[in-house]
Structures are given as C-alpha cells and as structure tokens.
Amino acid sequence: MSFNETDVQNALKSLIDPNTRKDFVSGKSVKNIKLSGNDVSLDILLGYPARSVWGEVRAMVEAHLKSALPGVGKVSANVTSKVVPHAVQRGVPLVEGVKNIIAVASGKGGVGKSTTAVNLALALAAEGARVGVLDADIYGPSQPTMLGISGQPVSKDGKSMEPMTNHGLQSMSIGYMIAGDDAPMIWRGPMVTQALDQLLRQTRWDNLDYLVVDLPPGTGDIQLTLAQKVPVTGAVIVTTPQDIALLDARKGLKMFEKVGIKILGIVENMSTHICSKCGHEEHIFGAGGGEKMCADYQTEFLGSLPLDIRIREQADSGNPTVVADPEGNIAKVYKQIARRIAVKIAEMAQDHSAAFPKIVVQNT
Question: How far apart are alpha carbons 89 and 260 in whole angstroms?
Fold first, then answer.
C-alpha cells in the first residue's frame, strides 16, 4: 500500500508528546519528511531542551509510524532541540547574548529558593541547553558557594566582564566582586538596583538559551527593577507548605502578575522530610499548600522537593544535587521541573525582534 507525506503528517497527529501534552504536528515539531520508496525519514525538532528523552521520543515516533502506515519500510526519526527567544514585557530592551530569562523568586527567605534556582539551571544544562545564572541577591549572594566558584571575573575590554564558569554554567554575582565571604553589602536601594543592572548588562553572556535569575526574597527594589528593566520571559515561585510561606509567596505571585510577567508555575520545596537514618517520609510542614495555591491562581504546580540533608550538603560543597547525584531521584525531580518550565516557555509567543532589519539613516 502506498502513502505520501500527508499520510505521515496525519499519522503523527494522533501521537502525543508526553512533555508538551500536545501532538507533534500541532506542536510544529515535525520537519523534513522524506519518502524513499516505502522508507520514511523525518526530523522532530523540539522547542525545549530534552537530551535525556531524545531516544525515547525517537523510539516512540518510529514505532507509531510503523504501526500506523501499512507496508512502511524503514522508519528513521532524527530528534533534536532548538530554543528560541520568547516574548517579554513591552518596552524592555533585550539582553545581548540571552534568549530567555527565568526569574526564580520567593515571598520570604529560607525556603530554598537559591538551591532550587541553581539545580534548575543545572538541570536545563543537563538537557542540552546553554544556561547562565545571575545572582541578583545583592545583600546575600550564595551562588558562588553553591557553584564552587572563587576568584574575580576578568574584563578583556575594560568595559564588560566575562562570566565565571563551572559545571557547564555561566554565572555572575556581586559575590565575585567583594573581598571575603563575610563582607557586608551596606548599600541603599538605588545602589543595589544599579548594581543589578550592571551585572546583567555588562556581563558578556555567551549565547545563552536561558538565564536563571536568583532573586532575593520579598517584593522590594530589586524585584521592581527586574520587572521594569529586565526582559523576563517568565517567573517561577518557590515556596514551602507552611501557611506563612504561602502567604508571602502569594504576594510575590501577585507582584509579577501586576507588572505583566508570566508566572510559569510554583515549586514546593521541603514538602516532606526524609529521615537520614531510616528513610521515613513525613509532611512536617503541612501538605497540599502549593497545589492549593496553584488552584487559587490558575497556575501550574511544577513539582515538589523533599527536605533532605543531601540537598543542603551538596549545595554547600559547591556540587549541587543535579551534578553530585545526576541519576538520583531528587535530580530526576529537578530535571522534570526544568523540562516542564522549558516546555511552558516554548509554548509562549516568540520574540521576532531579531528578525526585523535594522534601519540606519545617514547623510551621504
């Protein structure tokens, strides 16, 4: 029985991508269908980094076409990913070398926001993306310690700084500029917001798919500056199950909504405690708070992470969980959350500003 390119397209309309929860055709992932006799080859181009599941997607597509197309010969699917820039707040200039900016925020301190931010960045990198981390917590920078980076950034042109690198991530933090881990930042608000702008725009980010911005807790100067001056693709809210943490997390969520930044979802940290002696798991901070908050605000519950001593020990040692134990259960949760964030960004409106020609007016 013969078939054509349309038959292949129609067959793939019934195959759902488990990550986007949409079929591959409506998701515009199917490219370059070629027929040679009864043999079929095609490309599946995913709009999100997913190196760990490329093989799974390829096997799924090939098996589906073999069953859906009677008489088909060899089926070959080539799966890759490509991340493109997506829309941000209106009127905010883009950052050179950065396609998408993800803000990681919390309403209050002590909920594990910085640990979550660095592990999500590492998880995106593990899936094949080019990723950077901007430590926007000027008063309490923690990313240099978590990334195991010491020293100061260099400037090749006297105007901009080269990002510091480790674990495959590019990073920048005020922590690289100050002398000693115990040196306090005794700055007023305007100095802090100016420092954030300089760290963001005077760093020579090298072709990043995602820049993860680790925000300080609360809804103050830095968050407002971020909303007004930084082109944010979307925000992730980190909370714990306690009522007081959720109350503050709601304030952070509402702030982003008011300034027109899309909420990508909520991560519930320390949702259960795992005993290091016996492995017993218990909801010591309460249960279901993050999911209820998501239901109240029609946003997505991205996932939950346990209160586990290994997460703290690994981050403190400069080897966060995703690189310290990449095949462990906790790393898998971080990767699932990171992939879901990337999928949600891929579904957003694309930014086409780079596609327009630049018009230069000059006297001749």
Answer: 6
